[in-house]
Amino acid sequence: MTERIVEIVPDAGLHARPASKFVETVNEHDATVKLGRADSDDLVPAGSMISITSLGAKCGEEVRLVAEGDDAESTLDALEQVLTTPEGERNDS
Amino acid sequence: MTNETLGGTGVTPCKGVGTVVWYRPDSALPSKDDFEKVASTNRPMERDRFETARERAHIELEAERDRAAKRVGEMEAAVFDAHMQFLDDPQIDEGVSAAIDEGFPAESAVQHAFEDPIADFEEMDGRMAERADDLRDVRDRLVRLLTGSERVNLATLPRGSVVLAERLTPSDTAQLDTDRIAGFATVTGGRTSHAAIVARSLSLPAVVGVGATLETIEDGTNVIIDGEMDEVCVDPSEDRIAAIETETDVSVIHDRVATADGTEIEVAANVGSPAELKGAVGQGADGVGLFRTEFLFLDRENPPTEQEQYTTYVDALERFPDSRVVVRTLDIGGDKRIPYLDLPAEENPFLGERGIRRSLGPDSDLFETQLRALLRAAANADGGTLSVMFPLVSTVDELDAALNRIDAVAESLDAADTDYALPELGVMIETPGAVFRAEQFAARVDFLSIGTNDLAQYVMAADRENEQVAHLHDPLHPPVLQAIDRSVDAAHDNDAWIGMCGEMAGNPELSELLVGLGFDELSMSAVTLPKVKTNIATTDQMRARDIAAQALTAETRSDVESIIEDQ
């Protein structure tokens, strides 16, 4: 079992597109992943869109990822990438 | 209740008049108690029915996702990805299985399974309540597929309809036809709701979060949806309707506009997705002054093909058969996520490798493909004139390199015997470097276009997204005005035309100043376009020049502001 604390970067927090991308990434990997707030022991299944959006984790908050399985380390790498990649495009002119 | 107004949250600064059509999609669906329990022998069949409905829901969602991506853009289409995740959620799966095991048929099992999660989200704050809407949308889709009920069709409403609804789901908004619908209002929802985002991108008058009083308005009532005053006006007086119709006078906004003394100014739209093109036509844009092409490149696993881009550019040109469409080449940099590009993490992405810097460097293949698509579109579109402009150019060398690239692409198309035409070419003036080279740029290209958001950011060294320095990030500061003035002169001295495609252009209070500064074209979000046109029509060129001259001698931003206000 391996775990990691990650600060959420996307403005939308763990919602909408970042949440969707997060669940998609979990499901692409073999590890069993759970997720919770960094300051809490409660964990929810990371492959469930309902569970992870229910956390209401916002931009700037820290979450704890716990993964189990052969693929655990690389799964966490991929998930950290999702949670730390800003999104959205600025109105650039 | 003549002239009574109901308050809500306006999401677009525009108004629409029309006749109420209530949209009640849920009423067509049976409730979970409408079904009798099934015998245990039938339970495997109910599971199969659920699986089939889920597969079909996936197919529908994929199709709606594609449609939304084309109409509104990738950002908005992504909500359908979330729906697909909800559809496959293990919690829903378990809930449905458990209910079927208890003897509920698939239809009511689905409703049971969604009950708790919907209730949980409803108890949370605003943004989370929107997830409840998404879940309802997914649930209703499954129930509809299981019962074979017809879907209410928002795309075939009579012209001039104003849609009223408890809420509009992403699937509902995907059907909204802006040719038929004059606006909408909803009982629930806030500025960030999906319906609000879609309304903005389509320039559709909309008020959300009106509350239960909205339900007192009956079908067939005339209403004004006033997104500017945040209200719905019920059964408005003839005078009020007439006032709104004059304000958005189609005859004024659909013609080219000239100042009171006859100087024509082109008023064009800034567009960031194909859906916005339609909104721009509806708001009377004379053309497109800034067609951002990033939507073609973002949020996908592979870059768009030349053919895909070609089709998009041809479509855009054909929407404006008698006008100019200014396409900006790819403008991306360190802060956007693009899986197929190796974008570096930069300390200061907005001072880093973005815009033309990437197009001439690591993204030169993408740049070349885009140029090929553009040159081919210029020759083959049965419509408007194509102009191409380069973003974030700050040196003459960069511009020369970009122009050489165009020549090389033209040569290769020639060699391959492929039809192409050379478009009009331009440069964006966004950096102080560009301002000081504006003469040299203008001598090499057909036009310049000022991006005021970035220009103000770089001239004032004030991050446009940092509220602490928002007072500095303002185009009315004298240094920014001087930079603008210098660019206008540089363009005209070298027989180039000059436009502005930043937010400043869309501020109706500044129309007179901009006319006075000598712009040939102003380009803005479609929603502000009618107001700017109306203001230009009453502007006197001599007086406008006088205002501009005074503003250019002002010492402080507040002096500039008083000069504008005193007029």
Verbal overview:
The complex is a heterodimer of chains A (93) and B (567). The mean pLDDT of chain A is 86. Chain A contains three helices and four strands, in the order βαββαβα. By secondary structure, chain A is of the alpha+beta class. The radius of gyration of chain A is 13 Å and the shape is globular. Chain B contains 22 helices and 17 strands. The model of chain B has no long low-confidence stretch (mean pLDDT 89). Chain B has 567 residues and is of the alpha/beta class. Chain B has helices at residues 43-71, 74-87, 90-101, 106-122, 126-147, 170-173, 194-201, 238-247, 250-254, 274-282, 306-319, 356-359, 364-380, 396-415, 432-436, 438-444, 452-459, 478-493, 511-517, 529-537, 541-553, 557-566, and strands spanning 4-7, 9-10, 15-23, 161-165, 181-186, 206-208, 222-226, 231-234, 257-258, 264-271, 288-292, 324-328, 385-390, 424-429, 447-450, 497-500, 521-524. Chains A and B meet through α1 and α2 of A and α2, α3, α4, α5 and α17 of B.
Task: List unreliable stretches of 5+ residues of chain A.
Answer: none
Strand content of chain A: 15-25%
Mean pLDDT level of chain A: 86
Give the largest interface pair and sizes. Answer: A-B, 26 and 42 residues
What would you call the quaternary organization?
heterodimer
Please outline the major beta sheet of chain A.
Answer: 4 strands, antiparallel
Number of strands of chain B: 17
What Rg of chain B is obtained from the alpha carbons, in whole angstroms?
26 Å
Which structural class do the helices and strands of chain A define?
alpha+beta
Describe the structure concisely.
Chain A is an alpha+beta fold and 93 residues long. Chain A has helices spanning 16-28, 49-54, 72-84; strands spanning 2-7, 32-37, 44-45, 62-68.
Kindly list the characteristics that best describe this protein.
heterodimer; A: about 90 residues; alpha+beta; 4-stranded antiparallel β-sheet; about 35% helix; B: about 575 residues; alpha/beta; 8-stranded mixed β-sheet; 8-stranded parallel barrel; 22 helices; globular
